[in-house]
UniProtKB/TrEMBL annotation:
InterPro entries: DNA_glycosylase, Endonuclease-III-like_CS2, Endonuclease3_FeS-loop_motif, Endouclease-III_FeS-bd_BS, HhH-GPD_domain, HhH_base_excis_C, MIG/MutY. It comes from the Bacteria. This is Adenine DNA glycosylase. Pfam families: EndIII_4Fe-2S (PF10576), HhH-GPD (PF00730). The gene is mutY. Residues 39-191 form the HhH-GPD domain. Gene3D superfamilies: Helix-hairpin-Helix base-excision DNA repair enzymes (C-terminal), Hypothetical protein, domain 2. Belongs to the Nth/MutY family. Its EC number is 3.2.2.31.
Length: 290
DNA sequence: CAATCGTGGCA
DNA sequence: TTGCCAAGATT
């Protein structure tokens, strides 16, 4: 099927159904877009919205954030999860001030040099904030392409060469159209072509979707590993970080001891948090946000 | 390439 | 109730 057959239905659908998100508004700054992209990594939109608003009100520019201690970023990150992203965003702000005159760079090559910015985020910011032409391959896009083009329910674990070539081939020539196409496919994946219970009845390309035309065959690949949680270091780290976040000042070791057992794991995780820069050992038996 | 890294809502 | 899942990056 010609690539262009997807364009008009998806773009029209996006025009009619796109969500009104703060980082998509015309007045949204590139900094707002960058902050949103870091927060949205593995985190649902609904949970990001209030934190993003608070961050932009408190730190309207990269320089505002860069002037703060990293601990303030970690505290304001709240319960979004993966708090190292807060450190990376702070580090990105520092780098933007030091190396880019305080302005979020518009080039992919500069963006991907920032902490916490990988291929997806660099392409997304260049595309959404600056209207550049880039392949934006996130989990939503990958799922839409897997279904419509490959005829399979879910994309592979990692991005394949063929997958990237397919996405490149679908990218409109005009940069502005390419940028809209990128966000439109993502939105389709987020709202209609969802991982579970896709709404094929509402899909603008259902009539040419290889997966639907094949009868929506169930996933038939290697077993997908589900992440353990109870009793893991991640849960332990989360508990310790919650104690540090929710305290106004430094906390005594006893407060951390009450948050987790066994001791050996707690000690190891606390050392890991200090090593990661998420916590500071400010005095004997006293810890705080950095 | 695979493991690691939080959190909470929902089917 | 519990497994699945949400705009990935880093090592």
């Amino acid at each position: 099927m010609p690539a262009s057959e997807l364009h008009t239905p998806v773009l029209d659908w996006y025009d009619a159904h796109q969500r009104d998100l703060p980082w998509r508004r015309p007045e949204a700054s590139p900094w707002s877009v960058l902050v949103s992209e870091l927060m949205l990594q593995q985190t649902p939109v609904a949970r990001v919205l209030p934190v993003h608003q608070a961050w932009l009100e408190r730190w309207p520019t990269p320089a505002d954030l860069a002037a703060e201690p990293t601990g303030e970023a970690v505290r304001a990150w709240g319960r979004l999860g993966y708090p190292r992203r807060a450190l990376r965003l702070h580090g990105a702000a520092v780098a933007i001030v030091a190396e880019h005159g305080g302005e979020v760079p518009s080039e992919y090559a500069d963006l991907i040099g920032l902490p916490g910015v990988g291929d997806y985020t660099a392409a997304a910011v260049a595309s959404f904030a600056f209207g550049r032409r880039h392949v934006v391959l996130d989990t939503n896009v990958r799922r839409v392409l897997a279904r419509t083009r490959q005829g399979v329910e879910l994309a592979s674990t990692s991005v394949t060469r063929a997958e990237r070539e397919t996405a490149t081939g679908l990218l409109p020539d005009d940069p502005a159209t390419a940028a809209t196409w990128a966000v439109a496919v993502m939105e389709l994946g987020a709202l209609v072509c969802t991982a579970s219970s896709p709404r094929c009845g509402e899909c603008p390309v259902a009539d040419l979707c290889a997966w639907r035309l094949a009868g929506r065959p169930a996933y038939d690949g290697p077993p997908r590993r589900t992440q353990a949680w109870a009793g893991t270091d991640r849960q332990c780290r989360g508990r310790l970080m919650a104690v540090l976040r929710e305290s106004e000042g430094p906390v005594h070791r006893s407060a951390l001891e009450a948050a987790w057992s066994p001791e050996s794991q707690r000690v190891r995780c606390l050392a890991g948090l200090v090593e990661d820069g998420l916590a500071a050992h400010v005095a004997p038996d006293v810890y705080a946000l950095p």
